[in-house]
Amino acid sequence: MPIPKIEITNPQALEIMGKVKSGEIFIPLATWFKKSKWYLISILIVTILLIALVVGKNLSEKTPVPVFAPPDIESITPPEVINLKSDFSGLKEEIQNLNTDLPDPFIPTFDDNLKLEEAVN
Amino acid sequence: MKLFAKLFLAALTLLFFSAVTTTVFADAKSDYEFQYSRYRQNYIEYSILKKDFLANPTLDNQQKAVLAAKQTLSSRDLSKANFAAYLLDLCQEKQTNYTPIKPLLDSLRSARAFFLSEAEKSKTIVTPANLTSFTEDYLINVVPHNRSFRTGIVACKISQLVRIQAQSKNALDVILPKLAIPLSTPLQTRIDDLQLLGNKINDTINTFTDKLYTEEEISNIDNEYYFTGKIETIKKIQTLQLKWIDGLIDIDLNYAHS
User: Fold this and answer.
1) Which of A102, A110, A113 sits opposite B135 (nearest CB)?
2) Could you give the maximum distance between any two Cα atoms of chain B, in Å?
C-alpha cells in the first residue's frame, strides 16, 4: 500500500518550520545559556566533586586499612616464676580463719524470772 | 542383674545416711533459731498481758497472762535446750575425742535434758501461784545449766584447737617419709624444733583446759570478763599453730618437693 504524501499547508506550522530551518528558534535558548554560563559550570564542578567523593568512599571501604606496626625489636621475656604451693596451705588457712572471739556463738538473753507479780527492786 | 540391684540399693542407703548426717547439724541450729524467735514473740505478748493484768486484775486478764507466760516458758526452755544441742553439735563435729573437755560436754547434755524437762513441766501451770512456784524452783536449779553455755562455748573452741593439732601431726607424719634419708643436720634440727613446738602447743591447750576446772575459774563464770583472758590464750595458741604450720610448709617446699 503506497504511503500518502503529506503536504503541510497550515501557515502557523509553516512559520515554525521556517524558524527551525533558519535557527531563529534556538536564539533565546543560546542567550539563556550565555547568561547562566558560570552557574552551570559551578553546578558541573560540584557534581563532579560529589561523584568523586562517592567513588573514593566506595573504593576506600573495599580496600583494607593498612596496619602500620613498629618493626620488631628484641623483647625481654620475664623469667617464669614457679609458685610452689604446699599441700598444707589449706591447714594454714584454717588456722588463720579460726575465730578467736568469744562468746562464739553469741549467748542469747532470756528472762528466767517470769511471774505475774510486780518485780520488787 | 541381682548384683546391680544390690549395688544400687547400697548406694541409695549410703546416700540417705550421708544426707541425714549432714542435716543433723543444720537442724540443731535451725531448731534453736526457730524456738528463740518464738520465745521473743511470746515474751512481748507476755509482757503486754502481764501489764494489762497488773493494771486491771480481772479473772479474764489473769487467764490470758498465765497462758502467755506458759507459752513463753515453754519456748524459752526449748530455745535453751536447742542452744545446748547446737553447742554440742559444734563441739562434736570436730570429732577430736579430747577427753579433758568431756565434763563440759556432759554439762551441756545435762543442761539440754534439764531444759527439755522444764519445758514439759511448764505445761502443768494453771494459776499465778503455780507460775510463781515454778519460777522459784527454776531460779534455784537453772544456775549451773545456764553456766554450761559459757563453758560449752570455750569447750567448742578448745575442740577446734585440738583438731588443728591433730591435723598438724598428721601433716608431719605425711611429710616425714618423703624426706631423703639420712636427714641433713639442719633438716633434723627443724623437725626437732617442730616437734618441740607441737608439744608446747599441746601443753598450752592442756593447761588452758585444766584451768577451766579450777575454783577460781568456776567462781568467775558469771563474770562479764570471763571470756577476755581466754580470748588472749586462744590467740596465743593460734599464733603458735601458725608458726608451726609455717615451719612445716617450709620443710615441705624445700625438702619434700625436691
Assistant:
1) A113
2) 90
The predicted model gives B196-221 an average pLDDT of 93
pLDDT more than 90, % of chain B = 72
DSSP A35-98: HTHHHHHHHHHHHHHHHHHHHHHHHHHHSPPPP-PPPP--PPPPPPP-----TTHHHHHHHHT-
Whole-number average pLDDT of chain B? 88
Shortest CA distance from B246: residue in chain A: A92
**Cα nearest neighbour of B128 on chain A:** A116
pLDDT at B108: 96
> Can you give the pTM of this predicted structure?
0.69
* pLDDT higher than threshold 90 for residue B11: no
The answer to whether A106 faces chain B, any CB pair under 8 Å, is no
A116 in contact with B, Cβ within 8 Å? yes
Facing residue for A86 by CB, picked from B79, B142, B253:
B253
Torsion of Cα atoms, B66 then B67 then B72 then B75, to 10°:
140
Reading the block at residue A43, the C-alpha cell is: 553546578
List Cα–Cα distances, B153 to A52, B175, B203, B232, in angstroms.
88, 34, 20, 15
Residue A88 sits at the chain B interface (C-beta within 8 Å):
yes
Q: How far is A78 from chain B (nearest CA, A)?
A: 23
